[in-house]
Amino acid sequence: MSRTVQPAGQAGREALLQEGYRRAAGLTWRYGTTYYWGAALLPKARRRHVHAVYALCRLADDIVDDQAVVDRGDTVATGAALEAFADRFRTAVTAEEAGDPTGDDPVMAAVAATVVACGIDRECFDRFFGAMAMDLTTSRYETWDDLCGYMEGSAAVIGEMMLPVLEPTSPMAQEPARALGLAFQLTNFLRDVDEDLDRGRVYVPQEDLRRFGVDLTAADGSGRRATPQWRAFLAFQIARNRELYALADTGIALLPGRSARCVGAARVLYSQILERIEAADYDVFSTRARVPTWRKATTAARIMVAGPPTPPVRTALPGPGRTADHVAPYPR
Question: Is 312 left (phi over 0), alpha (psi -120 to 50) or beta?
Answer without folding.
Answer: beta
